[in-house]
């Protein structure tokens, strides 16, 4: 006679046990079976009925809880979110009214102008040159002077080095020859980085924010730390009025999908981001690109007004301006291919210079277009058809030295072949110069650059130890608060978008719940019964029906997909904004931390939506709190994976990389297929088994498995070692492992943001 184990039903004189039926519970001695009472749920093998929680309805005889009351909680959460957004909107309207009042006062006090800059810069440069490690010279002998209170247009054909000139002058790229003087002193402009504004060709800004949000943030981040906050905001008001943006002050920037301000207004905001920082020098890259002629003229007039009224040094790389736009510039730097000067001086003297060389501009042709044709060699002097572009370089050098613009007579070209190398020597030199040397130099410069920036960060973090002699801007703690506020404005401005995002997490959780609805753990029969089982069915009899690990896999894959896709948007779609901010002195650590902290509310709500949806169809035995804890930590790990992927790959490849990550970590490295037993014992996994140790889904699956089996009363759970190498005592360690892995991914995301695309961060 064999004792009937708990979970089975063995009435008097029964030959073999049967599972206690669903909708009923059996006594501990397995001799009686009772209908499950109202308010409780009894699945197969129930000994103690499980109480339904407040989110479920369980009539008498329930084998599964009816949990559609979850939707009531979801609706209540949505209502709370809507109310919070409404309160936030009212506060924003009050703030907007305050700014409009200040704008009105500004109009009554002054005309549209800005105060002169406090420090003016005259920049001299002599024989600037750049030779690449491959030996190619892309800039040579560029000399001249940029004077404050004047605008200078830089023109030239493609490959002339217009942008290269700006990067050499500002110190973003190390020059190989030449020197720079600032107000007559030999020093690099890089020293004055906080006093230099740079307006990129593309309108790089957060498109979800309003004009006011962007300008206020730029002012608070870049103006001196000892300047009163009210004065900084007054500066923003002045710039808004000066740029004639008051009527769109509270309009979002917008993009291709969401309509915002116009292209010309966006260009003004792009310039305004630099003006509110009170720079002494303003560089602009193609400020008129993508604009119609009327708007381009407005922008050029604006630059002229800035230079003349504020005493600022304004330098703009410009391409094919209209005659009227071209005439707004005071000076012209015309470069030819190879980065050599064709002309540098007053704009209104340029045609006179080229006429002295025999170039005559037709009356009906734009002077700017004519000089571009001269620079490309399409136009020849009237009396010298043999002249090529290189002759113009030499003519300018003679003019610069003697004041006379003449062409040098042609000479015979002599070739010295005394040192001609053998083909073998040429190949060896080519291998070294073209491949090895640039690679070694790049690594050395990269390591030096990163090390220097790290020590500068440590020095300026502890501002009481070392202050910035040029401009003391907010320290990392204040910067964190400002960046956090901006991130919150970006994330939580659009109520409908936020609700739709949470709805997607709810749907994902519901799909996973539906897939797991019939998955459960049913204990194995007593071993005495298995002795009479046919050999073919013996493996089934000796093992329980264990599908909890599969539930964990479904959950892990769903959470990983959802979390990674949500984490993409934090950094992946605004890397260019990050590059622009770091180029003017923003530290990476407060930026990363601010974005992560701002993500916490939507991460917490997203994991709650997934958890509530997950329990709708899945018959769980543990508590909702335990399930939510596992899913929340898994979401954190997946979210930080999304950070890392988006920081490392381009936004065009983010989706594919995210899908690969989710499938790899959520399925292959979850410890289910292949199993942990196989991974630990099979020699093929010897050198890669550590991948399972750093997989958050692997620990999430184990944590869910342990908590789901803990309340069950099957005999083998209480008396035998658990399957899959799991142990009940490891639950807390599983949670800590998930959190540690999430921290690791966050650190990798920080390193990827900081150590890649270094040139764009200067």
From TrEMBL:
UniProtKB keywords: ATP-binding, Hydrolase, Membrane, Nucleotide-binding, Transmembrane, Transmembrane helix, Transport
Signal sequence coordinates: none
SMART domains: AAA (SM00382), Ephrin_rec_like (SM01411)
Source organism of the structure: Gigaspora rosea
Keyword hit for Cytoplasm: no
Location, primary (coarse class): membrane
Classification lineage: Eukaryota, Fungi, Fungi incertae sedis, Mucoromycota, Glomeromycotina
Locations listed in the record: Membrane
Top-level taxon of the source organism: Eukaryota
Domain ABC transporter, first and last residues per copy: 123-363
GO molecular function, one term: ABC-type transporter activity
InterPro entries to which the protein is assigned, alphabetical: AAA+_ATPase, ABC2_TM, ABC_transporter-like_ATP-bd, ABC_transporter-like_CS, ABCG_transporters, P-loop_NTPase
Coiled coil residues, start to end: none
Membrane topology, from the record: Multi-pass membrane protein
Key word Protein transport present: no
Transmembrane spans: 68-85, 552-573, 603-620, 626-649, 656-676, 735-753
Name by which UniProt lists this protein: P-loop containing nucleoside triphosphate hydrolase protein
């Amino acid at each position: 006679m064999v004792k009937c184990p708990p979970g089975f039903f063995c009435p008097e004189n029964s030959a073999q046990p049967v599972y206690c039926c669903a909708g009923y519970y059996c006594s501990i001695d397995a001799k009686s079976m009772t209908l499950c009472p109202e308010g409780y749920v009894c699945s197969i093998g129930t000994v103690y009925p499980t109480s339904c929680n407040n989110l479920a309805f369980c009539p008498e005889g329930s084998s599964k809880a009816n949990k559609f009351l979850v939707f009531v909680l979801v609706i209540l959460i949505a209502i709370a979110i809507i109310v919070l957004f409404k309160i936030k909107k009212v506060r924003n309207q009050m703030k907007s009214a305050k700014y409009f009042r200040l704008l009105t006062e500004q109009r009554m006090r002054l005309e549209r102008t800005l105060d002169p800059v406090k420090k003016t810069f005259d920049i001299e440069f002599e024989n600037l040159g750049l030779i690449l490690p491959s030996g190619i010279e892309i800039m040579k002998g560029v000399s001249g002077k940029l004077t404050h209170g004047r605008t200078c247009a830089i023109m030239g054909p493609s490959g002339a080095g217009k942008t290269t000139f700006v990067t050499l002058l500002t110190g973003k790229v190390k020059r190989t020859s030449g020197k720079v003087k600032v107000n007559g002193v030999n020093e690099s402009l890089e020293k004055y980085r906080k006093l230099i504004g740079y307006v990129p060709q593309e309108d790089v800004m957060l498109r979800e924010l309003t004009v006011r949000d962007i300008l206020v943030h730029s002012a608070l981040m870049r103006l001196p730390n000892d300047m009163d906050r009210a004065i900084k905001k007054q500066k923003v008001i002045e710039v808004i009025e000066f740029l004639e943006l008051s009527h769109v002050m509270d309009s979002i920037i917008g993009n291709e999908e969401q309509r915002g301000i116009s292209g010309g207004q966006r260009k003004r905001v792009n310039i305004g981001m630099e003006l509110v920082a009170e720079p002494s020098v303003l560089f602009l890259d193609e400020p008129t690109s993508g604009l119609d002629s009327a708007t381009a003229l407005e922008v050029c007039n604006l630059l002229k007004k800035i230079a003349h009224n504020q005493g600022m040094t304004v330098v703009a790389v410009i391409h094919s301006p209209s005659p009227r736009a071209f005439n707004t510039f005071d000076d012209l730097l015309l470069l030819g291919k190879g980065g050599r000067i064709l002309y540098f001086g007053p704009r209104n003297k340029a045609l006179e210079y080229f006429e002295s060389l025999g170039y005559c501009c037709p009356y009906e042709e734009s002077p700017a277009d004519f000089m571009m044709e001269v620079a490309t060699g399409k136009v020849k002097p009237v009396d010298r058809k043999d002249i090529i572009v290189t002759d113009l370089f030499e003519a300018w050098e003679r003019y610069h030295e003697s004041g006379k613009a003449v062409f040098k007579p042609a000479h015979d070209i002599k070739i010295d072949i005394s040192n001609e190398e053998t083909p073998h020597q040429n190949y060896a030199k080519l291998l070294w110069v073209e491949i090895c040397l640039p690679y070694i130099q790049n690594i050395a410069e990269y390591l030096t650059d990163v090390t220097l920036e790290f020590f500068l960060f440590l020095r300026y973090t502890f501002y009481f130890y070392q202050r910035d002699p040029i401009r003391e801007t907010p320290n990392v703690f204040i910067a964190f608060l400002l960046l956090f506020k901006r991130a919150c404005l970006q994330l939580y401005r659009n109520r409908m978008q936020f609700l739709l995002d949470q709805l997607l997490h709810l749907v994902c959780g519901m799909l996973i719940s539906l897939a797991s609805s019939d998955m459960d753990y049913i204990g194995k029969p007593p071993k005495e019964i298995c002795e009479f089982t046919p050999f073919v069915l013996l493996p089934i009899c000796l093992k329980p029906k264990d599908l909890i690990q599969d539930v964990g896999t479904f959950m892990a894959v769903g959470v990983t997909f959802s979390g990674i896709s949500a984490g993409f948007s934090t950094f992946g779609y605004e890397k260019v904004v990050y590059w622009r901010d770091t180029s003017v002195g923003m530290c990476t650590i407060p930026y990363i931390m601010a974005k992560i902290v701002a993500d916490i509310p939507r991460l917490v709500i997203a994991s709650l939506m997934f958890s509530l949806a997950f329990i709708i169809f899945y018959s769980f035995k543990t508590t909702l709190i335990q399930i939510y804890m596992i899913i929340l930590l898994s979401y954190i790990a997946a979210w930080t994976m999304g950070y890392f992927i988006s920081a490392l790959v381009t936004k065009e490849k983010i989706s594919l990389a995210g899908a690969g990550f989710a499938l790899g970590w959520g399925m292959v490295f979850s410890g289910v297929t292949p199993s942990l037993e196989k991974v630990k014992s099979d020699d093929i996994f010897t050198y890669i088994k550590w991948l399972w140790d750093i997989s958050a889904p692997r620990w999430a699956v184990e944590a869910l498995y342990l908590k789901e089996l803990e309340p069950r009363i099957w005999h083998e759970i209480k008396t035998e070692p658990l399957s899959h190498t799991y142990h009940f005592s490891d639950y807390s360690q599983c949670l800590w492992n998930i959190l540690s892995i999430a921290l690791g991914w966050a650190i990798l995301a920080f390193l990827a943001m900081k150590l890649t695309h270094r040139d764009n961060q200067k």
